[in-house]
Amino acid sequence: MMRQSSPILYLVFWILLSFLTLFPIYWLFVISVKPAVDLFTTPSLILDTVYWNNYVKVLSNETIRRYMYNSLVISTSNAALVTVLAFMACYALSRFDLAGKENIFFWTITNRMAPAAVFLLPFFLLFTQVFTIGDWKLYDTKIGMVLLYCTFNLPFAIWTLRPTMDGIPKELDEAATVDGATTWQVIHEVVFPLARPGLAVTFILTWVFAWNEFLLAATLTSFNARTITTGLSEYVTTTGTEWGAMASIAVITLIPALIIFSMVQRHIVAGLTFGAVKE
Amino acid sequence: MRSNTVGWLMLAPTIAILAVFGIAPFIYVLYVAFHHWNPFGADPLMTYNGANNFRRLVFDREFLLSIAVTIKFAFFAVVSEIILGYLLAQLFMREFPGRGLFRTVHTLPLIVAPIVVGSVWRLMTTPSIGIIPYLLKTWFGYDLNIGRDAGAAFLLTVIMDIWHWTPLVTLTLLAALLSLPKEPFEQAQIDGANRWQIFWHITLPMIRPAILATVFIRLMDALRTVDEVWMLTSGGPGAATRYVGLHIWKIVFPKTDYGYGAAISVIVLYLTLVMCWLLYVALVAPRQKKEAE
């Protein structure tokens, strides 16, 4: 079948597609290495001079570095927490006969449907007035953002993991249980390895959602837990946008994201389900 | 069978977090929606006014228009993303040199923050300084002006959304395809099924839950898009790309008309829920019926 068609054809196809995919990112880089005045001249596809000052300015800014660190901590903890919780929830939904579980499954996703703008106010009130212990408030804390991002990431993770979990043959767990494995052993040694591609994709995508979130972070943090997307928006003002600085931060943020991606991408390999239940 | 208590215990943290951070704010918004509340208006106190906010919605032409363009936007964006994303996921299932590299390249758009995506696309398409209008003009003599041409602005927001979010579809469907068992496919090939038959009778039914989940996620996110479109077109020209999220965030919110804003949110939430529920029933119910027989 298709496997016989030449690899050159694939290569040409993917290279062309990659040009389309990369063009806006290339343009982001072009903006980041231009002085402000050059942005408003006749555009040209080729970069003739490179102007690194935007990077120097941004990297020497200590606040931006801290925002970056906050973002990394918040998105990584959120993605880890969400992936673990969703894995447990999907295992429960897929393997146990719980009363009303399909309704619970549908209910989880409704938490992602709300337009964020109006929910900012109740969240703000909850974070500044309800979730407080003495002087301590959930407002402007990293843990607050990690928990908050669960509201839209957990439904997403549960919905993307459930099909994977349902696809893992139940016969495998049952066989292991018959052989005397405990629930923990079944999860750890049978289900987890088979769900790995799904878990990796879930981790990556929840990480991305947390990393890119803007409205909630802008409203519910002020200093200690401020993230890099809000840092970006500080360069977009009503009096004008500092395009160069903004673009250079955006380019810099691609690097940690790429590192996380390449670490997790290795796990998106064909699962072992292929032929796992052969009689 | 094992006891269900273990199952409930595994589900408990999820339910707890979503109850605290999902239900509590929702009840608050629902409460506000039945009140007149404009803290910076002539009457700053919160007063109960029944269903008046909802009655006002029905006659609000701007709101109705924004709902219509939002649905149109979500439809075109999501359908294209699902088809494209599925095809790419299928291609990534094949062995070819540099597969890992291309997969990374193809996921790159996802890691660009929406406000940055919107900004870059704006700089690329602004008439007279953007590269895209410039190239279209010199190569094809076509004048792209998203400040004036409503159709072009709409199309551009759809293309931007496709560029940004197709990788998500590719990744989720790729994960689903990777976890499929191999035997049915081998068996079908031995039985002499062609590629179309394999797709229609084996692949599609098996990955239907994954497709459904992906459509849901994309549909919901498209219906509440704000940052990207705001940066690209600011909702213009006129109200051509003023999607409902933008409408709430940029038109209702700055007027601090919270009661009305809450009512709009509740209605949007309700509409999204109904749409998703219909999809869910249409796609899942026939399968469950078949299984029950």
Automatic annotation (TrEMBL), chain B:
Q: Which Pfam families does the UniProt record give?
A: BPD_transp_1
- Every ABC transmembrane type-1 domain range: 67-279
What family does this chain come from, according to its entry?
Belongs to the binding-protein-dependent transport system permease family.
Record's InterPro entries? Answer: MetI-like (IPR000515), MetI-like_sf (IPR035906)
Q: Which UniProt keywords apply?
A: Cell membrane, Membrane, Transmembrane, Transmembrane helix, Transport
Q: Where in the cell is it found?
A: Cell membrane
Chief location: membrane
Membrane as UniProt keyword:
yes
| Topology versus the membrane | Multi-pass membrane protein
Gene3D superfamilies in the cross-refs: MetI-like
Q: Where are the transmembrane segments?
A: 7-34, 63-88, 152-178, 198-217, 258-283
**Stated name of the protein:** Sugar ABC transporter permease
